[in-house]
């Protein structure tokens, strides 16, 4: 538990369409919840349009994409392009991390993923520490109370 | 210890049986490359290992989830895939990969991880693969979000395709590998047996039951004994005499040691476990596991290492027998057999067919895989590792347990992110410890 309390945020945590790994998602959810944030976990193998729909619907402070199966450099790129093409999501903060390629070279796909639209890519050995810094700097939006559903 | 049916079981089962009769363990990689030439080279190198091996074609993730067009696109553009895109290559191309490499002494298995596997299995059948892997639960829950009901239906159909092929084809359940880690051994054993019963119900005549090495060698040895016993009790006999079957062990499927030394020691422990536990086949991992897809050479080296360890273990057992020492009893203190048998009975009571019984059992939480996010899994049950690495139920949810083990359940099941990583990293720490200490000592000496 952190010693201070900051305004809590809301996160959508998600895998990518072809990635079945979930321990990474379970872990990220717990870690964010322990920091007082609200998490919507989309689980394994979400099709791109489900991720887009969830972001439109949930209006999170950030989308956190996690993938380790080695297809992240392709699926992650396609996903963020689709996301950025949506008028409501051009400004959404979106980050990706994990094992992005199949050859273990941590930094190989970073530039391409940033160019495609991610605000940050966490692929190194120190990904988690860097992500913690990112969370500290993140200013959650002040959100209006949710509209009551009619 | 394998089952009775021998005649007509096909070359995969016959190869495993011959190896067993000559006292060796069949070793097999997890290996898949995108290109057909490279895949063929890989198979040839595995065939040429100086020990009984079986070949593996591991399929890429696009093909697993049915995104065949994306697999084809990646193949055309030369983008890196994490396996062999079997459907994109097609049956003819795949047959060319196998032709002249696969044989009686080197049968080849297609390993995938696909719930709606109809097209994939049909292609593997048509390409002449000797075996494949799967199961309605084990290829669904850990592999995405396909509804369990659809997977049960698809796998019934897959079994029928396999059973109908002119040259007999072998099918292995992945039930012993669920999520790779933190699933109690009794649940793994029960799922393996239940999926084997499902295969049999749908006409499969040659099958194997799996178990994945976990975090405590004693508990694993007991689990292998439980799996053999339960399989013999449930699969043998009946009007058809029961299918041909054997047990396959997987080297640890969870977070792997990062150092080469640590990875090899974990692999060593699995090869010894396979021999002592009476498994007929071992599917290995390599020192690249924690980092990336292994190369061809890394696969070959891991197979040679595992085969050498296995023959050393057999030698030790012979020496002990010569010295008049009886093999250590395969335990009993962890109650794996009792738990697994109760689970299998409770599930089969749910419905007249195994497929329907599995669906009911998951819907009611009788079967519940800890931490599995699949929408059809209750995800109420929790498991923990005790300080010695024994995997125990922390909270069984609605999973039925015999009174003896129910008493041992620990009450505090809340697990935070730190503790989760600690549990997932148990084997990583256990086997990397020398590497870590060695570095520290070296750094200290340098300072
Ligand atoms: C368990 C496991 C499985 C289980 C998964 C069960 C499940 N539902 O989760 C099973 C057996 C089913 C499985 C299947 C496959 N797997 Co797998 N699996 C593993 C294994 C052994 C452990 C992964 C794990 O659970 N780690 C625990 C979690 C908590 O850690 P993590 O995932 O590494 O995530 C950490 C960091 O990466 C980071 N991180 C991750 N995401 C993010 C995101 C952000 C924003 C940040 C900041 C940080 C971050 O933080 C996490 C905590 O430290 C790894 C190898 C290893 N590491 O030892 C292979 C591994 C990930 N698998 C791999 C592959 C390829 C597959 C398969 C495609 C089969 C195959 N071809 O071999 C299939 C997947 C099918 C599919 N459709 O995707 C490869 C990936 C290769 C690569 N990237 O180069 C690995 C590395 C093994 C290997 N060397 O070949 N696997």
TrEMBL record, chain A:
Residues 8-145 form the B12-binding domain. SUPFAM superfamilies: Cobalamin (vitamin B12)-binding domain. PROSITE patterns: B12_BINDING. It comes from the Bacteria. This is Cobalamin-dependent protein. It comes from Streptomyces flavotricini.
Automatic annotation (TrEMBL), chain B:
It holds the Pfam family Met_asp_mut_E. Keywords: Cobalamin, Cobalt, Isomerase. The keyword Isomerase applies. This is Methylaspartate mutase. It comes from Streptomyces flavotricini.
């Amino acid at each position: 538990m952190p010693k201070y309390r900051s305004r809590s945020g809301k996160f959508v945590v998600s895998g990518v369409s072809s990635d079945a790994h979930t321990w990474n998602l379970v872990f990220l959810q717990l870690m964010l919840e322990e920091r007082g944030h609200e998490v919507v976990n989309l689980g394994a193998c979400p099709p791109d349009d489900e991720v887009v729909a969830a972001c439109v619907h949930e209006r999170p402070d950030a989308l956190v994409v996690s993938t380790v199966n080695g297809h992240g450099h392709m699926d992650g790129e396609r996903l963020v392009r689709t996301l950025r093409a949506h008028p409501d999501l051009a400004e959404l903060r979106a980050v990706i991390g994990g094992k992005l390629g199949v050859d273990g070279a941590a930094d190989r796909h970073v530039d391409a993923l940033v160019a495609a639209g991610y605000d940050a890519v966490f692929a190194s050995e120190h990904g988690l520490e860097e992500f913690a810094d990112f969370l500290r700097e993140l200013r959650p939006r002040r959100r209006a109370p949710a509209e009551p559903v009619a | 210890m394998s089952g009775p049916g021998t005649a007509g079981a096909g070359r995969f089962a016959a190869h495993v049986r011959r190896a067993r009769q000559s006292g060796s363990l069949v070793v097999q990689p997890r290996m898949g490359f995108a290109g057909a030439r490279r895949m063929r080279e890989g198979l040839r190198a595995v065939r040429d290992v100086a020990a009984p091996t079986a070949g593996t074609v591991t399929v890429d993730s696009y093909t697993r989830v049915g995104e065949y067009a994306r697999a084809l696109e990646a193949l055309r553009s030369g983008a890196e895939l994490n396996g062999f895109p079997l459907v994109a290559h097609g049956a003819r191309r795949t047959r060319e990969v196998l032709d002249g490499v696969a044989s009686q002494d080197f049968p080849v298995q297609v390993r995938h991880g696909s719930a709606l596997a109809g097209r994939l299995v049909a292609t593997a059948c048509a390409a002449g693969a000797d075996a494949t892997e799967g199961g309605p639960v084990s290829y669904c829950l850990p592999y995405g979000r396909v509804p369990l009901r659809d997977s049960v239906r698809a796998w019934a159909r897959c079994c029928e395709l396999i059973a109908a092929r002119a040259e007999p084809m072998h099918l292995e359940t992945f039930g012993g590998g669920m999520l790779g880690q933190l699933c109690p051994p009794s649940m793994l054993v029960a799922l393996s047996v239940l999926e084997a019963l499902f295969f049999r119900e749908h006409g499969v005549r040659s099958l194997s039951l799996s178990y994945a090495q976990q975090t405590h060698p004693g508990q694993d040895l007991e689990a292998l004994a439980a799996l053999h016993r339960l399989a013999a009790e449930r699969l043998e006999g009946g009007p058809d005499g029961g299918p041909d079957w054997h047990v396959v062990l997987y080297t640890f499927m969870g977070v792997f040691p990062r150092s080469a030394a640590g990875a090899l020691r974990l692999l060593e422990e699995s090869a010894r476990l396979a021999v002592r536990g009476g498994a007929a086949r071992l599917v290995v991992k390599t020192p690249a596991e924690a980092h990336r897809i292994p190369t061809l050479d890394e696969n070959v080296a891991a197979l040679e290492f595992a085969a050498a360890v296995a023959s050393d273990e057999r030698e030790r057992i012979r020496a002990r027998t010569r010295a008049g020492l009886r093999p250590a009893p395969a335990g009993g203190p962890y109650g794996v057999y009792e738990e697994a048998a109760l689970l299998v009975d409770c599930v089969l009571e749910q419905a007249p067919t195994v497929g329907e019984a599995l669906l009911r059992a998951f819907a009611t939480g009788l079967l519940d895989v800890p931490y599995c996010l699949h929408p059809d899994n209750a995800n109420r049950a929790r498991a923990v590792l005790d300080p010695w690495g024994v995997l125990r139920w922390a909270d069984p949810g609605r999973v039925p347990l015999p009174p003896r083990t129910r008493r041992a359940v620990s009450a505090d099941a809340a697990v935070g992110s730190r503790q989760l990583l600690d549990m997932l990293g148990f084997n990583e720490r256990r086997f990397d410890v020398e590497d870590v200490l060695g570095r520290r000592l070296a750094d200290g000496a340098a300072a």
